[in-house]
Amino acid sequence: MFNYRVLGILKRELREKLLSKTFIIMTITLPVIMFVAIGFQTLIMSYEGDENTNIEIITESPQLTNSFEKELSQLAFIKNGYYKLSYNTIPKESLKEYIDKKRTDIVDEKLTGIVFVPNSALKDKKIEYYAKTPKNITVTQKLGRHINKVLVSNYFIGKELSK
């Protein structure tokens, strides 16, 4: 079935298709295009455009405010000045009035957001975040772990637990 004519035709067809300019160019450029696309996506995902973030942390108790100030002031992105944090102690009843006063600063983006940590957060870990863009992932990723650490350490203060 395979005689010298069929083999000749196969060689000729393969030579025409595999050694054509289009095949060679696409073989080289397609992987390059894929790597550039993946690199561009990685670059965009790693970009943190959160310089000059100004956040206010409000708690109900001065002890919690001091704990937040002590823990968060040690973070590198706060020492570098990327994030500016201010701390305040306000009771929950007057929080609504305070947020209404700061609403223009939040809308004008002079203030990125307000994090309110009620005393009940020591037990249920529920805090409130007020901002123009409430689903700001970079703020959540950078501050969430540290806020949780402060809440857990304050929850166990005064509890008699063995080491």
Protein architecture, described:
By secondary structure, this protein is α/β, with parallel strands linked by helices. The chain folds into 2 domains: 43 residues; 103 residues, Rossmann fold (3-Layer(aba) Sandwich). It is built from 7 helices and 4 strands, in the order ααβααβαβαβα. The protein has a 4-stranded mixed sheet, with helices on both faces. Helix 3 crosses helix 7.
Reported by name, the CATH topology of the largest domain is Rossmann fold
Structural class: alpha/beta
CATH architectural designation of the largest domain? 3-Layer(aba) Sandwich
> In CATH, what is the class of the largest domain?
Alpha Beta
| Number of separate structural domains | 2
Total of helices: 7
Helix content: 55-70%
Topology order in helix (H) and strand (E) letters: HHEHHEHEHEH
In what range is the share of β-strand residues? 5-15%
What form results from the Cα inertia axes? elongated
Q: Enumerate the strands of the largest sheet in spatial order, edge to edge or round the barrel.
A: 2-1-3-4
